[in-house]
Amino acid sequence: xxxxxxxxxxxxxxxxxxxxxxxxxxxxxxxxxxxxxxxxxxxxxxxxxxxxxxxxxxxxxxxxxxxxxxxxxxx
Length: 75
Prior knowledge:
- The chain is mainly α.
- The chain has a single domain, classed as 434 Repressor (Amino-terminal Domain) (Orthogonal Bundle).
- It has 4 helices and no strands.
- The protein has helices spanning about 5-15, 20-30, 35-40, 50-60.
- Helix 2 packs across helix 3 (about 35-40) and helix 2 (about 20-30) crosses helix 4.
- It is globular, with a radius of gyration of 12 Å.
- The relative contact order is 0.21.
- The model has no long low-confidence stretch (mean pLDDT about 90).
- Keywords: DNA-binding.
- It comes from Bradyrhizobium hipponense.
- This is Helix-turn-helix transcriptional regulator.
- One of its GO terms (molecular function) is DNA binding.
- InterPro entries: Cro/C1-type_HTH (IPR001387), Lambda_DNA-bd_dom_sf (IPR010982), TransReg_Diox_bact_type (IPR050807).
């Protein structure tokens, strides 16, 4: 899985956790709904600037949207 696919999965998961629509996220991030959809489908790679806008709109750290799930430290 490449970074744009990892971001797509994490973005969609975080947005769903917040019960936020693509339209709401797009509005909060100052992006078009179509562009947010393309990012979530991994059709496009988001720039660092867009990553920052999306993370802020989600109340997340930008790096959290790029972390592969299940690769953290185990207790």
